[in-house]
Write a structure and sequence with these properties.
The complex is a heterodimer of chains A (132) and B (66). Chain A is built from 5 helices and no strands. Chain A has 132 residues and is an all-alpha fold. In chain B, 58% of the residues lie in helices and 0% in strands. The chains are: A mainly alpha (132), B mainly alpha (66).
Chain lengths: 132, 66
C-alpha cells in the first residue's frame, strides 16, 4: 500500500536503499577479500581493498536522502545525535591519543567508526526517550 | 512549549497516527509535540492551527518554553 504520509514514505525508501546497499556491501566485501587473499597485487590491490567503500557511500546517501525528506523534529533529533556522537568520538580519540603517549597500544582506525555509530545510536535513543 | 494539541486531537477523535498522517509528520513527532518537548517551526505551527481551525495562540502557550 502506498503511504500518503511523506515521513512514512521517506522511511520506507530509506530502509529499501539501506538494505540494497548492505546486500551490495556483503557481496563486494566478499569479492574484495577473496581477491586480496588470492594474489591481486600492485596498485590493483589498493583498488580491490577500497572498493567496498562504494556501498558504504550508498548508505551515506540513503541517510542524507532520509534526512532531507523526513519531518523537522526527526531531522533535528538525528542531527543533534550526530553532533553529540561526533564530539564525543573526537574527545575519546584525543584522550586515547594522549594515553598512547604513556604506552597504551595503538588501535585500529575502525574503532573511530564503530565508536561514532554506537554513540550516535545511544544519543538518538536517549533524545527520543527524553522527548516523550 | 505547552500546547493543547492532545486535547484538540482527542476532541476530534483522532489517534496520534491519524494526526501524524494529516500533518505529514511522524507519530513520534506528534508524541514530542503533545508532551511539550518540541516547539514546532512556524510553518508546522500554522499547519496545526489550520487543521484544528484555531488561531496559533489558541493552541500554543507562548509564555511556556522548555
Amino acid at each position: 500500500m502506498k503511504a500518503t504520509n511523506p515521513t512514512t514514505r521517506a522511511m520506507r525508501r530509506y530502509f529499501r536503499e539501506f538494505w540494497i546497499a548492505i546486500a551490495a556491501y556483503v557481496a563486494i566485501l566478499s569479492a574484495s577479500v577473496y581477491g586480496l587473499d588470492h594474489g591481486v597485487s600492485g596498485f590493483a590491490r589498493y583498488v580491490v581493498a577500497v572498493v567496498p567503500v562504494l556501498p558504504v557511500i550508498g548508505v551515506f546517501v540513503a541517510v542524507v536522502r532520509w534526512l532531507r525528506a523526513t519531518d523537522e523534529y526527526q531531522r533535528q533529533t538525528t542531527i543533534t545525535a550526530m553532533a553529540i556522537a561526533g564530539g564525543a568520538t573526537a574527545l575519546i580519540n584525543v584522550t586515547y591519543g594522549f594515553l598512547e603517549n604513556a604506552g597504551l597500544p595503538s588501535v585500529s582506525v575502525w574503532t573511530t567508526y564503530v565508536l561514532f555509530m554506537i554513540i550516535w545510536l545511544v544519543a538518538t535513543l536517549t533524545l527520543q526517550r527524553t522527548s516523550r | 512549549m505547552r500546547n493543547r494539541i492532545k486535547v484538540l486531537r482527542v476532541e476530534r477523535d483522532l489517534s496520534q497516527a491519524q494526526l501524524a498522517d494529516e500533518l505529514g509528520i511522524a507519530r513520534q513527532t506528534v508524541i514530542a509535540l503533545e508532551a511539550g518537548k518540541y516547539a514546532p517551526s512556524l510553518p508546522l505551527a500554522f499547519k496545526i492551527a489550520k487543521l484544528f481551525a484555531r488561531p496559533v495562540e489558541d493552541i500554543f502557550d507562548p509564555n511556556s518554553t522548555d
